[in-house]
Specification:
By secondary structure, this protein is mostly helical. The protein folds into two domains: about 100 residues, no CATH class; about 190 residues, hpI Integrase, Chain A, CATH 1.10.443. Helices cover about 45% and strands about 10% of the residues. It has eleven helices and five strands; from the N terminus they run ααααααααββαββααβ. The strands form two sheets. The protein has a three-stranded antiparallel beta sheet, with no helix packed on it. Helix 1 packs across helix 5, helix 2 packs across helix 4 and helix 6 packs across helix 9. GO terms for molecular function: DNA binding. Pfam families: Phage_integrase (PF00589). Keywords: DNA recombination. This is Tyr recombinase domain-containing protein. InterPro entries: DNA_brk_join_enz (IPR011010), Integrase-like_cat_sf (IPR013762), Integrase_catalytic (IPR002104).
Length: about 325
């Protein structure tokens, strides 16, 4: 097996990486992804059967056949540095991030890159499994208090925790009020509205919240207070908008009336906000140990939850 130490391609690759990660407009998440891809390319170069000519230069490394072979090895999990549960096949989101990073490195090195067609993002239809739910709660517990997250992401973390603990639907989440939270956010009252309402009446449940969810929820409530304070009114909803939008109601001039941040979310708005933030989060978290991509629809996160209420359930 040939050694990689003096491959000109790697010297040029390292210089391109240094150039792009030193830029002020390269986020910490993107820099981490670029280092991840560069590490995989190093390991790919010493794989048996990898094109030997790819060692000659960065342009050669990013030509069609070496790039195709690298992406194939990465997709099959052959370039991992640690074992993972299951088949180890990379997700579509991971493959798209790899292609993004290859394009960025090529531009930084002033060379072309030949990439195959990007895989389309699939619609995830399976519910979140027990293992992923456990990973998510552990992740929330470790990251809920970390600085640097934007308001939308802080809201998402709290929302995920509440859904994992309660299995609440979008409409039930939007109906949550501050008064529904118990002392120290240890419980939450959820009014269940089954889909077949004529057969199953609404039921009120008091459900316990886990430690990770409480931590994420407390941070969101602090952010929420800042959002609703300028409104000078009593906004009781737990889930509110983090940026201004339009109401869809025209004013006297026919223009859509703006709605400020801090307004209660409606079910469709909450579902859209969840999807929008999850798409960004899944991309940012690619390659981080312990992270599995979240489904893009809130319903898929909710479906597999079997929350046990505290014995105070009463029909309305």
């Amino acid at each position: 097996m040939a050694t990689e130490d003096r491959a000109p391609a790697l010297d040029q690759l390292d210089r391109a990486l240094l150039r792009v990660t030193a830029r002020a407009d390269t986020s910490a998440a993107r820099a981490r992804q670029l280092r991840w891809v560069v590490g995989e390319l190093r390991r790919a170069l010493v794989q048996e059967g990898f094109p030997a000519e790819a060692r000659a230069s960065l342009a050669a490394l990013l030509s069609a056949e070496p790039t195709r072979r690298y992406l194939e090895l990465a997709r099959c999990g052959r370039l991992r540095t640690r074992a993972v549960a299951g088949a180890g096949i990379s997700t579509t989101a991971s493959m798209r991030v790899r292609m993004d990073c290859l394009e960025i490195l090529a531009r930084a090195g002033s060379v072309p890159v030949e990439l195959p067609e990007r895989p389309a993002m699939p619609e995830l239809k399976t519910p979140v499994g027990a293992r992923q739910r456990s990973l998510l709660l552990n992740w929330l517990g470790e990251h809920a208090d970390r600085a640097g997250a934007d308001a939308g992401r802080i809201r998402l973390f709290a929302l995920i925790g509440v859904v994992l603990d309660t299995g609440a639907r979008a409409g039930e989440l939007c109906a949550m009020r501050l008064a529904d939270l118990g002392a120290d956010e240890r419980t939450v009252t959820i009014v269940r509205h089954p889909q077949a309402r004529t057969v199953n009446p609404a039921v009120t449940e008091v459900l316990p919240l886990s430690g990770p969810t409480r931590a994420a929820l407390r941070r969101w409530l602090d952010v929420r207070d800042d959002l609703v304070w300028p409104l000078r009114g009593e906004v009781a909803a737990v889930w509110v908008s983090v940026r201004g939008n339009h109401s869809g109601i025209p004013d006297e001039d026919g223009n859509s009336r703006p709605r400020p941040a801090g307004m209660p979310l409606m079910p469709r708005g909450l579902a859209r906000a969840y999807t929008r933030t999850v798409v960004r989060l899944n991309v940012d978290m690619v390659g981080r140990p312990g992270w599995e991509p979240l489904p893009y629809r809130l319903e898929q996160l909710r479906r597999a939850i079997d929350a046990a209420p505290i014995p105070t359930t009463v029909p309305e």
